[in-house]
Amino acid sequence: MDLIRPASPLQEDTATSQNAAAQAAAPRAERGGSPRRRRLIVGAAAAMAAGLLVSGCGGGAATQGAEKAAAADPASGASATGSVSICGGKDASGIYKGTAEAFSKANGKVTAKYTEIGATTDEARTQAVQRLEGKSTECDIFVTDVIWTSEFASQGWLVDQTKLVEANKDRLIPSTVETTKYEDKYWASPFFTNAGLVYYQKDKVARPATWQQLYAEAAKAPGNGFVYQGKQYEGLTVNFLEMLYSAGGEVLNDKGEVRIDSPETRKVLDFMRKGLKDGSADRAVLTYNEDPARLAYESGNFGYQRNWPHVYRLLNATALAGSFGVAPLPAWEGGKASGVLGGWNLAISAHSTNQAAAVAFIDFATTPEWQKHVAMDYSQAPVNEAAYSDAAVLEKMPFATELLASVKGAKPRPISPVYPQISQAIYKNVYAVLSGTASTEEAVKKMAEEITTAKASF
Length: 458
Hints:
Oligomer: single chain
Number of strands: 12
Strand content: 5-15%
Shape: globular
Helix content: 40-55%
Low-confidence stretches: 1-63
Protein backbone atom coordinates (compact mmCIF):
# COMPACT_ATOMS: atom_id res chain seq x y z
CA MET A 1 0.00 0.00 0.00
CA ASP A 2 1.64 3.14 -1.01
CA LEU A 3 1.08 6.51 0.48
CA ILE A 4 -1.45 7.20 -2.23
CA ARG A 5 -2.82 3.88 -3.46
CA PRO A 6 -2.29 0.54 -1.73
CA ALA A 7 -1.62 -2.86 -3.17
CA SER A 8 -4.49 -4.00 -0.96
CA PRO A 9 -4.98 -7.68 -0.10
CA LEU A 10 -8.65 -7.01 -0.66
CA GLN A 11 -8.29 -5.18 -3.96
CA GLU A 12 -11.41 -5.68 -6.05
CA ASP A 13 -10.74 -7.15 -9.49
CA THR A 14 -12.85 -6.71 -12.60
CA ALA A 15 -15.20 -9.38 -13.88
CA THR A 16 -12.81 -9.85 -16.79
CA SER A 17 -9.86 -10.78 -14.60
CA GLN A 18 -12.04 -13.06 -12.46
CA ASN A 19 -13.28 -14.92 -15.54
CA ALA A 20 -9.79 -15.13 -16.96
CA ALA A 21 -8.52 -16.66 -13.73
CA ALA A 22 -11.34 -19.19 -13.70
CA GLN A 23 -10.77 -20.11 -17.34
CA ALA A 24 -7.06 -20.51 -16.72
CA ALA A 25 -7.68 -22.81 -13.76
CA ALA A 26 -10.26 -25.07 -15.41
CA PRO A 27 -8.03 -26.46 -18.22
CA ARG A 28 -5.38 -27.35 -15.65
CA ALA A 29 -7.95 -29.47 -13.84
CA GLU A 30 -8.79 -31.30 -17.04
CA ARG A 31 -5.19 -32.23 -17.79
CA GLY A 32 -5.03 -34.82 -15.05
CA GLY A 33 -3.75 -35.23 -11.53
CA SER A 34 -5.48 -36.73 -8.52
CA PRO A 35 -9.27 -36.45 -8.10
CA ARG A 36 -8.66 -34.33 -5.01
CA ARG A 37 -6.37 -32.02 -7.00
CA ARG A 38 -8.94 -31.68 -9.80
CA ARG A 39 -11.72 -30.92 -7.32
CA LEU A 40 -9.59 -28.24 -5.64
CA ILE A 41 -8.77 -26.49 -8.92
CA VAL A 42 -12.32 -26.64 -10.23
CA GLY A 43 -13.68 -25.45 -6.88
CA ALA A 44 -11.23 -22.57 -6.75
CA ALA A 45 -12.07 -21.62 -10.33
CA ALA A 46 -15.76 -21.57 -9.52
CA ALA A 47 -15.18 -19.42 -6.46
CA MET A 48 -13.14 -16.91 -8.43
CA ALA A 49 -15.70 -16.80 -11.21
CA ALA A 50 -18.33 -15.99 -8.60
CA GLY A 51 -16.32 -12.98 -7.50
CA LEU A 52 -13.70 -14.06 -4.95
CA LEU A 53 -10.54 -12.09 -5.39
CA VAL A 54 -7.88 -13.97 -3.57
CA SER A 55 -7.00 -17.50 -2.64
CA GLY A 56 -6.58 -19.63 0.45
CA CYS A 57 -4.66 -20.06 3.61
CA GLY A 58 -3.74 -23.37 5.41
CA GLY A 59 -5.47 -26.30 7.16
CA GLY A 60 -6.46 -29.79 6.05
CA ALA A 61 -4.16 -32.74 5.42
CA ALA A 62 -0.80 -32.04 3.80
CA THR A 63 -0.32 -33.40 0.29
CA GLN A 64 2.71 -35.41 -0.81
CA GLY A 65 4.10 -32.26 -2.42
CA ALA A 66 4.24 -30.43 0.89
CA GLU A 67 5.70 -33.43 2.67
CA LYS A 68 8.52 -33.75 0.12
CA ALA A 69 9.39 -30.04 -0.06
CA ALA A 70 13.02 -28.97 0.17
CA ALA A 71 13.98 -26.84 3.17
CA ALA A 72 15.73 -23.47 2.97
CA ASP A 73 19.11 -23.31 4.70
CA PRO A 74 19.34 -20.13 6.83
CA ALA A 75 23.14 -20.13 6.56
CA SER A 76 23.16 -20.23 2.76
CA GLY A 77 22.42 -16.55 2.30
CA ALA A 78 25.82 -15.50 3.64
CA SER A 79 27.67 -17.04 0.70
CA ALA A 80 25.07 -16.34 -2.00
CA THR A 81 26.13 -14.95 -5.37
CA GLY A 82 24.50 -14.34 -8.73
CA SER A 83 20.99 -12.98 -9.15
CA VAL A 84 17.58 -13.40 -7.60
CA SER A 85 14.25 -12.75 -9.31
CA ILE A 86 11.23 -11.60 -7.30
CA CYS A 87 7.79 -11.79 -8.92
CA GLY A 88 4.47 -10.36 -7.83
CA GLY A 89 1.64 -7.93 -8.51
CA LYS A 90 1.62 -4.29 -9.53
CA ASP A 91 4.20 -2.35 -7.52
CA ALA A 92 1.99 0.68 -6.88
CA SER A 93 4.07 2.01 -4.00
CA GLY A 94 7.47 1.04 -5.39
CA ILE A 95 8.24 -1.07 -2.32
CA TYR A 96 9.20 -4.21 -4.25
CA LYS A 97 11.52 -2.51 -6.73
CA GLY A 98 12.85 -0.25 -3.99
CA THR A 99 13.70 -3.21 -1.76
CA ALA A 100 15.35 -5.04 -4.66
CA GLU A 101 17.51 -2.02 -5.47
CA ALA A 102 18.47 -1.41 -1.83
CA PHE A 103 19.33 -5.09 -1.37
CA SER A 104 21.51 -5.17 -4.51
CA LYS A 105 23.39 -2.08 -3.35
CA ALA A 106 23.87 -3.37 0.21
CA ASN A 107 24.76 -6.96 -0.70
CA GLY A 108 27.27 -6.44 -3.49
CA LYS A 109 27.43 -10.14 -4.41
CA VAL A 110 23.80 -10.66 -5.42
CA THR A 111 21.64 -8.56 -7.70
CA ALA A 112 17.86 -8.57 -7.28
CA LYS A 113 15.20 -7.75 -9.84
CA TYR A 114 11.46 -7.32 -9.37
CA THR A 115 9.06 -8.41 -12.13
CA GLU A 116 5.37 -7.51 -12.18
CA ILE A 117 3.29 -10.50 -13.24
CA GLY A 118 -0.20 -9.06 -12.77
CA ALA A 119 -1.97 -5.73 -12.55
CA THR A 120 -4.35 -6.97 -9.85
CA THR A 121 -4.18 -9.36 -6.91
CA ASP A 122 -6.17 -11.97 -8.80
CA GLU A 123 -4.08 -11.70 -11.95
CA ALA A 124 -0.86 -11.99 -9.94
CA ARG A 125 -2.15 -15.15 -8.28
CA THR A 126 -3.18 -16.66 -11.62
CA GLN A 127 0.22 -15.90 -13.15
CA ALA A 128 2.04 -17.29 -10.10
CA VAL A 129 0.00 -20.52 -10.23
CA GLN A 130 0.75 -20.96 -13.94
CA ARG A 131 4.49 -20.58 -13.32
CA LEU A 132 4.55 -22.81 -10.26
CA GLU A 133 2.45 -25.53 -11.83
CA GLY A 134 4.55 -25.35 -15.01
CA LYS A 135 7.77 -25.62 -12.96
CA SER A 136 9.07 -22.36 -14.37
CA THR A 137 12.46 -21.17 -13.10
CA GLU A 138 11.71 -17.54 -13.97
CA CYS A 139 10.91 -16.51 -10.38
CA ASP A 140 12.98 -17.38 -7.31
CA ILE A 141 10.63 -15.58 -4.93
CA PHE A 142 6.91 -14.91 -5.20
CA VAL A 143 5.32 -12.05 -3.27
CA THR A 144 2.26 -13.86 -1.92
CA ASP A 145 -0.95 -12.64 -0.33
CA VAL A 146 -1.21 -13.93 3.23
CA ILE A 147 -4.19 -16.08 2.25
CA TRP A 148 -2.36 -18.02 -0.47
CA THR A 149 -0.07 -19.90 1.93
CA SER A 150 -1.96 -23.16 2.31
CA GLU A 151 -2.96 -23.61 -1.29
CA PHE A 152 0.60 -23.06 -2.54
CA ALA A 153 2.22 -25.13 0.21
CA SER A 154 -0.25 -28.01 -0.08
CA GLN A 155 0.58 -28.38 -3.78
CA GLY A 156 4.32 -28.65 -3.15
CA TRP A 157 5.05 -25.37 -4.92
CA LEU A 158 7.11 -23.75 -2.15
CA VAL A 159 10.36 -24.30 -0.29
CA ASP A 160 9.94 -25.04 3.42
CA GLN A 161 11.15 -21.91 5.27
CA THR A 162 10.69 -23.24 8.80
CA LYS A 163 14.36 -22.98 9.79
CA LEU A 164 14.72 -19.57 8.17
CA VAL A 165 11.62 -18.16 9.88
CA GLU A 166 12.71 -19.59 13.24
CA ALA A 167 16.15 -18.01 12.80
CA ASN A 168 14.50 -14.61 12.20
CA LYS A 169 11.55 -15.02 14.57
CA ASP A 170 12.83 -12.60 17.19
CA ARG A 171 12.51 -9.77 14.69
CA LEU A 172 8.96 -10.64 13.56
CA ILE A 173 5.55 -9.88 15.11
CA PRO A 174 4.05 -13.28 16.05
CA SER A 175 0.68 -12.68 14.37
CA THR A 176 2.42 -12.02 11.03
CA VAL A 177 4.38 -15.27 11.31
CA GLU A 178 1.13 -17.22 11.67
CA THR A 179 0.10 -16.17 8.15
CA THR A 180 3.00 -18.23 6.76
CA LYS A 181 2.09 -21.45 8.57
CA TYR A 182 0.65 -24.66 7.09
CA GLU A 183 0.74 -28.09 8.71
CA ASP A 184 3.11 -26.92 11.50
CA LYS A 185 5.70 -25.58 9.07
CA TYR A 186 6.45 -22.09 7.76
CA TRP A 187 6.29 -21.65 3.99
CA ALA A 188 7.10 -17.95 3.60
CA SER A 189 8.53 -15.01 5.51
CA PRO A 190 6.38 -11.97 6.39
CA PHE A 191 7.36 -8.84 4.43
CA PHE A 192 4.74 -6.26 5.38
CA THR A 193 1.42 -6.60 7.11
CA ASN A 194 -1.95 -4.89 7.34
CA ALA A 195 -4.83 -4.59 9.77
CA GLY A 196 -8.03 -2.56 9.85
CA LEU A 197 -8.42 0.74 11.70
CA VAL A 198 -11.30 3.00 12.66
CA TYR A 199 -11.20 6.63 11.52
CA TYR A 200 -13.49 8.96 13.47
CA GLN A 201 -14.50 12.62 13.37
CA LYS A 202 -13.32 14.02 16.69
CA ASP A 203 -15.87 16.85 16.74
CA LYS A 204 -18.81 14.47 16.20
CA VAL A 205 -18.15 11.13 17.85
CA ALA A 206 -16.01 9.53 20.54
CA ARG A 207 -13.04 7.25 20.05
CA PRO A 208 -14.70 3.80 20.15
CA ALA A 209 -13.80 1.24 22.81
CA THR A 210 -16.43 -1.32 21.76
CA TRP A 211 -18.43 -2.07 18.64
CA GLN A 212 -21.59 -1.44 20.65
CA GLN A 213 -20.36 2.04 21.60
CA LEU A 214 -19.42 2.81 17.99
CA TYR A 215 -22.86 1.80 16.68
CA ALA A 216 -24.65 3.71 19.45
CA GLU A 217 -22.65 6.87 18.75
CA ALA A 218 -23.20 6.47 15.01
CA ALA A 219 -27.00 6.35 15.50
CA LYS A 220 -27.19 9.42 17.74
CA ALA A 221 -27.41 12.06 15.04
CA PRO A 222 -27.36 12.57 11.27
CA GLY A 223 -23.77 12.84 10.17
CA ASN A 224 -22.52 10.40 12.83
CA GLY A 225 -23.00 7.25 10.76
CA PHE A 226 -20.56 4.39 10.16
CA VAL A 227 -19.25 3.30 6.75
CA TYR A 228 -17.49 0.01 6.05
CA GLN A 229 -16.96 -2.56 3.30
CA GLY A 230 -20.33 -4.31 2.95
CA LYS A 231 -20.30 -5.30 -0.71
CA GLN A 232 -20.59 -9.00 -1.52
CA TYR A 233 -16.84 -9.77 -1.79
CA GLU A 234 -13.76 -10.65 0.28
CA GLY A 235 -13.89 -7.34 2.12
CA LEU A 236 -17.23 -8.26 3.70
CA THR A 237 -15.71 -11.52 4.94
CA VAL A 238 -13.00 -9.50 6.68
CA ASN A 239 -15.40 -6.95 8.18
CA PHE A 240 -17.61 -9.75 9.52
CA LEU A 241 -14.69 -11.75 10.92
CA GLU A 242 -13.34 -8.71 12.76
CA MET A 243 -16.55 -8.66 14.80
CA LEU A 244 -16.93 -12.43 15.03
CA TYR A 245 -13.39 -12.93 16.35
CA SER A 246 -13.81 -10.13 18.90
CA ALA A 247 -17.09 -11.70 20.05
CA GLY A 248 -15.27 -14.97 20.71
CA GLY A 249 -16.52 -16.81 17.63
CA GLU A 250 -14.59 -18.76 15.00
CA VAL A 251 -15.06 -20.31 11.59
CA LEU A 252 -12.81 -23.34 12.06
CA ASN A 253 -11.28 -24.58 15.30
CA ASP A 254 -7.66 -25.64 15.75
CA LYS A 255 -8.49 -29.08 14.34
CA GLY A 256 -10.03 -27.59 11.21
CA GLU A 257 -13.57 -28.45 12.28
CA VAL A 258 -16.39 -26.13 11.19
CA ARG A 259 -17.56 -24.03 14.14
CA ILE A 260 -19.37 -21.12 12.48
CA ASP A 261 -22.82 -22.39 13.49
CA SER A 262 -22.64 -20.72 16.89
CA PRO A 263 -24.38 -18.23 19.19
CA GLU A 264 -21.55 -15.74 18.46
CA THR A 265 -22.22 -15.85 14.72
CA ARG A 266 -25.92 -15.22 15.31
CA LYS A 267 -25.22 -12.32 17.68
CA VAL A 268 -22.89 -10.61 15.22
CA LEU A 269 -25.23 -11.04 12.25
CA ASP A 270 -28.19 -9.72 14.24
CA PHE A 271 -26.08 -6.79 15.43
CA MET A 272 -24.89 -5.86 11.93
CA ARG A 273 -28.41 -6.13 10.50
CA LYS A 274 -29.85 -3.99 13.31
CA GLY A 275 -27.15 -1.39 12.65
CA LEU A 276 -28.40 -0.96 9.10
CA LYS A 277 -32.02 -0.86 10.24
CA ASP A 278 -31.59 1.79 12.94
CA GLY A 279 -29.29 4.02 10.91
CA SER A 280 -25.98 3.34 12.64
CA ALA A 281 -24.66 2.36 9.20
CA ASP A 282 -25.91 3.71 5.91
CA ARG A 283 -27.44 1.06 3.62
CA ALA A 284 -25.13 2.29 0.87
CA VAL A 285 -22.37 0.27 2.56
CA LEU A 286 -23.90 -2.79 0.82
CA THR A 287 -22.31 -1.41 -2.37
CA TYR A 288 -18.97 -0.34 -0.86
CA ASN A 289 -15.51 -1.81 -1.12
CA GLU A 290 -12.48 0.12 0.18
CA ASP A 291 -12.43 3.18 -2.09
CA PRO A 292 -16.18 3.95 -2.10
CA ALA A 293 -16.19 3.71 1.71
CA ARG A 294 -13.28 6.14 1.86
CA LEU A 295 -14.89 8.57 -0.58
CA ALA A 296 -18.18 8.48 1.32
CA TYR A 297 -16.34 9.32 4.53
CA GLU A 298 -14.43 12.11 2.81
CA SER A 299 -17.78 13.81 2.10
CA GLY A 300 -17.89 14.74 5.79
CA ASN A 301 -21.32 13.16 6.21
CA PHE A 302 -20.21 10.32 8.48
CA GLY A 303 -18.64 9.97 11.90
CA TYR A 304 -16.84 6.63 11.58
CA GLN A 305 -15.08 4.65 8.89
CA ARG A 306 -13.49 1.20 8.99
CA ASN A 307 -10.63 0.99 6.49
CA TRP A 308 -6.93 0.25 6.02
CA PRO A 309 -3.88 2.31 7.09
CA HIS A 310 -3.26 3.85 3.64
CA VAL A 311 -6.43 5.93 4.09
CA TYR A 312 -4.64 8.15 6.63
CA ARG A 313 -2.55 9.92 4.01
CA LEU A 314 -5.47 10.21 1.62
CA LEU A 315 -7.68 11.81 4.27
CA ASN A 316 -4.97 14.32 5.08
CA ALA A 317 -5.14 15.51 1.48
CA THR A 318 -8.83 16.44 1.92
CA ALA A 319 -10.84 19.02 3.83
CA LEU A 320 -10.95 16.54 6.74
CA ALA A 321 -7.23 17.00 7.47
CA GLY A 322 -6.67 17.52 11.18
CA SER A 323 -10.29 16.78 12.11
CA PHE A 324 -10.14 13.01 12.42
CA GLY A 325 -8.60 10.53 14.82
CA VAL A 326 -7.36 6.98 14.23
CA ALA A 327 -8.12 4.09 16.58
CA PRO A 328 -7.50 0.34 16.64
CA LEU A 329 -10.54 -1.80 15.91
CA PRO A 330 -12.83 -1.85 18.97
CA ALA A 331 -13.67 -4.86 21.12
CA TRP A 332 -16.96 -6.68 21.32
CA GLU A 333 -18.64 -5.77 24.61
CA GLY A 334 -17.27 -8.19 27.18
CA GLY A 335 -14.58 -9.46 24.82
CA LYS A 336 -11.38 -8.12 23.30
CA ALA A 337 -10.53 -6.49 19.99
CA SER A 338 -9.44 -8.72 17.15
CA GLY A 339 -8.56 -7.63 13.63
CA VAL A 340 -8.01 -9.78 10.57
CA LEU A 341 -4.52 -9.78 9.12
CA GLY A 342 -3.76 -8.69 5.60
CA GLY A 343 -0.36 -8.16 4.06
CA TRP A 344 2.20 -9.84 1.82
CA ASN A 345 4.83 -12.53 2.35
CA LEU A 346 7.96 -13.71 0.54
CA ALA A 347 7.76 -17.35 -0.61
CA ILE A 348 10.64 -19.21 -2.29
CA SER A 349 9.59 -21.16 -5.36
CA ALA A 350 10.26 -24.91 -5.28
CA HIS A 351 11.73 -24.40 -8.77
CA SER A 352 14.14 -21.60 -7.82
CA THR A 353 17.62 -21.99 -9.29
CA ASN A 354 19.23 -19.79 -6.64
CA GLN A 355 17.68 -20.53 -3.26
CA ALA A 356 20.71 -19.12 -1.42
CA ALA A 357 20.18 -15.71 -3.05
CA ALA A 358 16.50 -15.93 -2.17
CA VAL A 359 17.45 -16.50 1.48
CA ALA A 360 19.82 -13.52 1.38
CA PHE A 361 17.07 -11.28 -0.01
CA ILE A 362 14.56 -12.40 2.64
CA ASP A 363 17.13 -11.83 5.39
CA PHE A 364 17.60 -8.26 4.16
CA ALA A 365 13.90 -7.48 3.67
CA THR A 366 13.02 -8.53 7.23
CA THR A 367 15.84 -6.74 9.06
CA PRO A 368 14.72 -4.15 11.63
CA GLU A 369 16.57 -1.45 9.70
CA TRP A 370 14.86 -2.13 6.38
CA GLN A 371 11.49 -2.56 8.08
CA LYS A 372 11.74 1.10 9.15
CA HIS A 373 11.92 2.01 5.47
CA VAL A 374 8.87 -0.16 4.82
CA ALA A 375 6.96 2.33 6.99
CA MET A 376 8.78 5.59 6.29
CA ASP A 377 9.28 5.31 2.54
CA TYR A 378 6.29 3.20 1.49
CA SER A 379 3.66 3.67 4.23
CA GLN A 380 3.29 -0.06 4.73
CA ALA A 381 2.87 -1.75 8.10
CA PRO A 382 6.18 -3.32 9.21
CA VAL A 383 6.43 -6.90 10.45
CA ASN A 384 9.09 -5.77 12.94
CA GLU A 385 7.62 -4.42 16.21
CA ALA A 386 10.54 -2.13 17.02
CA ALA A 387 9.88 -0.10 13.87
CA TYR A 388 6.58 1.17 15.27
CA SER A 389 8.28 3.05 18.11
CA ASP A 390 11.11 4.49 16.02
CA ALA A 391 11.11 8.31 16.09
CA ALA A 392 11.57 8.64 12.33
CA VAL A 393 8.72 6.22 11.68
CA LEU A 394 6.40 8.04 14.09
CA GLU A 395 7.12 11.32 12.32
CA LYS A 396 5.94 9.84 9.01
CA MET A 397 3.28 7.52 10.48
CA PRO A 398 1.93 9.14 13.68
CA PHE A 399 -0.77 6.49 14.09
CA ALA A 400 1.86 3.72 14.31
CA THR A 401 0.95 2.91 17.93
CA GLU A 402 -2.70 2.33 17.00
CA LEU A 403 -1.68 0.31 13.97
CA LEU A 404 0.62 -1.92 16.03
CA ALA A 405 -2.22 -2.62 18.47
CA SER A 406 -4.43 -3.72 15.57
CA VAL A 407 -1.71 -5.88 14.03
CA LYS A 408 -0.79 -7.59 17.31
CA GLY A 409 -4.42 -8.34 18.12
CA ALA A 410 -5.27 -9.56 14.63
CA LYS A 411 -5.79 -13.17 13.54
CA PRO A 412 -5.40 -14.89 10.18
CA ARG A 413 -8.44 -15.75 8.13
CA PRO A 414 -9.64 -19.39 8.29
CA ILE A 415 -6.74 -21.72 7.57
CA SER A 416 -7.65 -24.09 4.71
CA PRO A 417 -6.53 -24.84 1.15
CA VAL A 418 -10.17 -24.29 0.13
CA TYR A 419 -10.28 -20.80 1.60
CA PRO A 420 -11.82 -19.29 -1.58
CA GLN A 421 -14.95 -21.40 -1.14
CA ILE A 422 -15.02 -20.73 2.62
CA SER A 423 -14.84 -16.99 2.13
CA GLN A 424 -17.52 -17.08 -0.55
CA ALA A 425 -19.82 -19.01 1.81
CA ILE A 426 -19.25 -16.32 4.45
CA TYR A 427 -19.66 -13.14 2.44
CA LYS A 428 -22.57 -14.46 0.37
CA ASN A 429 -24.59 -15.42 3.46
CA VAL A 430 -23.61 -12.39 5.52
CA TYR A 431 -24.73 -10.20 2.63
CA ALA A 432 -28.04 -12.08 2.44
CA VAL A 433 -28.75 -11.18 6.09
CA LEU A 434 -27.69 -7.54 5.71
CA SER A 435 -29.69 -7.06 2.52
CA GLY A 436 -32.77 -8.70 4.06
CA THR A 437 -33.02 -11.67 1.69
CA ALA A 438 -32.35 -14.28 4.39
CA SER A 439 -32.90 -14.62 8.11
CA THR A 440 -29.95 -15.00 10.47
CA GLU A 441 -30.91 -18.61 11.17
CA GLU A 442 -31.15 -19.48 7.48
CA ALA A 443 -27.82 -17.83 6.72
CA VAL A 444 -25.94 -19.48 9.59
CA LYS A 445 -27.15 -22.95 8.63
CA LYS A 446 -26.37 -22.41 4.97
CA MET A 447 -22.95 -20.95 5.75
CA ALA A 448 -22.01 -23.97 7.86
CA GLU A 449 -23.25 -26.41 5.24
CA GLU A 450 -21.36 -24.72 2.41
CA ILE A 451 -18.12 -24.53 4.40
CA THR A 452 -18.45 -28.20 5.37
CA THR A 453 -18.99 -29.15 1.71
CA ALA A 454 -16.00 -27.08 0.63
CA LYS A 455 -13.73 -28.76 3.18
CA ALA A 456 -14.92 -32.22 2.12
CA SER A 457 -13.87 -31.44 -1.47
CA PHE A 458 -10.17 -31.43 -0.51
